Amino acid sequence: xxxxxxxxxxxxxxxxxxxxxxxxxxxxxxxxxxxxxxxxxxxxxxxxxxxxxxxxxxxxxxxxxxxxxxxxxxxxxxxxxxxxxxxxxxxxxxxxxxxxxxxxxxxxxxxxxxxxxxxxxxxxxxxxxxxxxxxxxxxxxxxxxxxxxxxxxxxxxxxxxxxxxxxxxxxxxxxxxxxxxxxxxxxxxxxxxxxxxxxxxxxxxxxxxxxxxxxxxxxxxxxxxxxxxxxxxxxxxxxxxxxxxxxxxxxxxxxxxxxxxxxxxxxxxxxxxxxxxxxxxxxxxxxxxxxxxxxxxxxxxxxxxxxxxxxxxxxxxxxxxxxxxxxxxxxxxxxxxxxxxxxxxxxxxxxxxxxxxxxxxxxxxxxxxxxxxxxxxxxxxxxxxxxxxxxxxxxxxxxxxxxxxxxxxxxxxxxxxxxxxxxxxxxxxxxxxxxxxxxxx
Length: 441
Fold this sequence. Notes:
Layout: E1 3-8, H1 25-38, E2 42-49, E3 58-62, E4 65-70, H2 87-101, E5 107-111, H3 113-126, E6 130-133, H4 138-145, H5 154-165, E7 168-171, H6 174-184, E8 191-193, H7 208-215, E9 222-227, H8 236-242, E10 252-257, H9 270-281, E11 288-292, H10 296-305, E12 308-311, H11 321-327, E13 332-335, H12 340-343, E14 350-353, H13 358-369, H14 372-389, H15 392-403, H16 415-440
Parallel strand pairs: 1-2, 1-5, 2-4, 5-6, 6-7, 7-8, 9-10, 9-12, 10-11, 12-13, 13-14
Antiparallel strand pairs: 3-4
Helix pairs in contact: 1-15, 2-3, 2-16, 3-5, 7-10, 8-13
């Protein structure tokens, strides 16, 4: 019999397009780890918030993987910072689904703190254990974003509760583990480091000339690539400012790939407007191209066509895009922060630089193009490293080992007991409503 797991990813559906403000690494993580877990004998339901009236309740996405679109607030697109108030409804909707379908889960794997809150409530009512991948921590976010952080302050209390309540915590890199221990007083014995991964089916090396031909890029250009969500913390302005110190290099260009639309809207999108202004102020607007969003099938050609992939965020809990770039044989120049300093080996698969330092970034680019032999080593080492330590199959095997630490039998309840419990809960809420109405009359 297949082992049954519920994934919760309240704002990041595996069905969503990538590149928007709230569509990125978590969407990829949930989609890809589930695909690999299925190969290990799991059947998986992914619970995510229904954000469109057109979405059915159940989507049979792939063999043994269903996406359950849960009622939680209005069925429209909302920023993730506005979703916390709907997590009680999310919990009730998920419990109703479990009760109505009679499904019995061995484990819940929560993703992000709001999903952790739901998993905690599910555990209280049904005794199903849960593990959590936070993907980002509120206290770390506040250190870097300060007043720009739009999440309610109660997030920190919720995360603290989850750190104590979860059966296990998945840290995505050593920095993540250290932050959990230092800022949340997490029990180290409950933390397991399991990285994110990349799909070798999607991302692999091909000759740059072939990739550039597909994109209409000249072979002789020096192409730098910045790809991902177009938000301030990603440090795209830092990459643009670095171009100022590289003006003497002929035929250099920076491609900025990402955004919520296929074509950037410089009037309505404040971040695109700001970045274009930065390029104009630095006198490099002719060398910077904002492409807009690209789908997954197109992304690999950008990685393959680039001479360097650049990612210099202020902070980064992990970062999947550097893995995808290295899998395509493209060296990475990244910030010496979070997961990037874990995945990128300085001087071996790319270079690490301080965030907010365009001169240091420009220096690393010059270092990278100085010696063709050294550049070739960077490319080959990048491919070897990601295929050894960061495939999704590797990640799923590590997750499987973690899941096996939990003995699920003691948590399972017969279906009829679950339905009785849900019926009693609904009856209690109904009686309370009537009592309140009677008292007010």
